[in-house]
């Protein structure tokens, strides 16, 4: 059954978010906002865990009270409606300014929950109905009153919250906080889902009062759709304001890792020149900026060591073959550089050495290495050209190890 899949999935997601946020309660600086946030996620998770049919049967049998799981889920969702309002007020205002309004929200929803508990206790619901409890007992006055109070409070509170969030998101003081604006809109969307859920359930229950069960399939499907949509929107609303500003840093890190893996084949080949130069600081193996910086340093050092072995004949062949492949400008330059490096590396592996380091001045470029961004872009192009058909063709044409140029 779809409820036995959708509700636990939502419950798992919300439990993970709750446990992640719970650690902040142990810190001294934890505020009323943190407490309200944790309580909101907790109530939503409790509602999900207690609402699906398999869980309903377990809770009912554990307590010995028929259909008490329905009350637990309803109380959890009613409390969630109040906590939505409290959390929104604490986000928008300081605790001192929010408190006068919160003093009305907490007693109002506490009264709703107390009324629901009393009305459930006065009801006669002996037959366990894990799926259609609301509609099966809709004709019983106490159950009808219980859900009418519950849905009316949900519609009222969630409508107010939706209006607040969408209004606040347009306020000028959020102009420089685009991710917070998106979070408010998503939070308002989550409360709007509760409004639609409560109205459709109330409509289905009203149809049952009039003796019609034609809307029951819709009424039973609404909780599944609402739980999945509401869970997604609430999670996004809580995550985006925090992680949204970090997205640019995450994209930069992904770009650096992509650059690192582009350089890696060239780095692995050139390390034969001096394997002892390879260094990764302890604890920084996953620090991509450190890995890139070290890679560039090591590549530059190995190139400097090989530069006396750069062969003018290889340079000429690379220019000709590169132009034949349609290369020009920077691409032709990097292809020539890659061919020189590859030919010099083959000579190095064949045991050729040269002590005249000044020969590098004739064939090296004039980059000073102070601009790491340009240095990285250069080496990425060289690394790509190193594996190209043009460079392979140059090496095939020379058919001999590179030798040191004359002094």
UniProtKB/TrEMBL annotation:
Membrane-spanning ranges: 6-22, 34-52, 72-92, 104-123, 143-166, 186-209, 221-243
Key words, A-Z: Membrane, Transmembrane, Transmembrane helix
Record-linked InterPro entries: DUF6545, MAB_1171c-like
Domain of life: Bacteria
Residue span, DUF6545 domain: 257-388
Annotated protein name in UniProt: Multisubunit Na+/H+ antiporter MnhB subunit
Pfam families xrefs: DUF6545
